[in-house]
């Protein structure tokens, strides 16, 4: 990726303050229909309710007992009892989902190892670079679906070179394409992982956008994780930034699940050490915000806000994808979520052409990424046509 997303987003924001016609589709943050960031009033309200004791002291390095248990319950949802029965589990607080990803790469790979990633992906490259790791890619899509054959073939290739392999899968609402694996694809993927019993697999399941999926049961896929054999350590990376729309708070967690108890014992010690020696602790208000929303009484307003937000995002997605389809503007396979990618042969050129028309996007993965999460419906409406005209006529 040639641009720094957060830097470009700030530039676009400044320009938009002077010229409201600017389209700022750069960054993965939800802005409501009035361009306001506090899309979930209950979250800001929850933060305001934290007193000094829940804001100012140092927290435990791993987040502390209530947090660890609360974040596991949050993510596993109604499948918690079943999964806890069949798997050993543990958690560690991290500064955002990003902290969980960085920690996993630091602990479970040696310099020059390969990390297994899709060829279309979010910026895992940055995390790998910092940990002195290389990337080993599989093809993401074939005929509009997840390319399971490539996933298996490439994983087999890598399994012959390297015993311990970190496998990153970002689902649902894959960043940057908006693709979500079907249940059938998911089950087949787990079957593939189970074939590699001679390897130690660290299955990094990045579900940053879990709450934004259009699937009927967002946690159904999680419920199948207990089919994985003892050679697998599943590492769920949870993003409080996306879950609570509180991006700057740096709330996240690494949640480890395995049939192998030793892997979980090792995780507890290694992750807390990694935390202490790098970011030290996750901010106390972040930990306490998750604890606050683990109280059922506080969840009612939160889920009301979340549903409202999901509906708005879904509407933006439908408008864009329907209009793109009607005029033949091509995107990567797309279901729902914060982003979509419009395909372009030369992504850098397309990015600049749009920039000349004050449309800020991100050039990546064979096209330009549009963060629909940050655009009001009146800006989404007609955007596909504008892009088509600028890039392809
Ligand atoms: C796919 C994906 N994973 C993880 C993250 C990390 O988010 P954070 O560190 O803010 O929780 C992001 C943020 O954009 C993301 O898009």
Structure in words:
45% of the residues lie in helices and 17% in strands. It is of the alpha/beta class and 393 residues long. The chain folds into 2 domains: 5-40 and 299-392, Aspartate Aminotransferase, domain 1, CATH 3.90.1150.10; 59-294, Aspartate Aminotransferase, domain 2 (3-Layer(aba) Sandwich). The relative contact order is 0.18. The mean pLDDT is 96. Bound molecules: pyridoxal-5'-phosphate. Pyridoxal-5'-phosphate (PLP) is lined by residues 28, 96-98, 122, 170, 175, 206, 208, 239, 241, 247, 252.
SSE order in H/E notation?
Answer: HEHHHEHEHEEEHEHEHEHEHHHEHEEEHH
Q: Outline the low-pLDDT stretches.
A: none
Q: Mind telling me the CATH class of the largest domain?
A: Alpha Beta
Q: Which hetero compounds are present in the coordinates? A: pyridoxal-5'-phosphate
* Helix percent band: 40-55%
Mass-distribution shape? globular
CATH topology name of the largest domain, in short, is: Aspartate Aminotransferase, domain 2
Strand content: 15-25%
Strand order, main sheet: write it out: 2-10-9-8-7-3-4
Q: What is the overall number of helices?
A: 16
Straight-line distance between termini: 26 Å
Structural category:
alpha/beta
Largest sheet: 7 strands, mixed
Domain count:
2
Mean pLDDT: 96
Rg, nearest Å: 21 Å
* CATH homology group of the largest domain: Type I PLP-dependent aspartate aminotransferase-like (Major domain)
Strand element count: 14
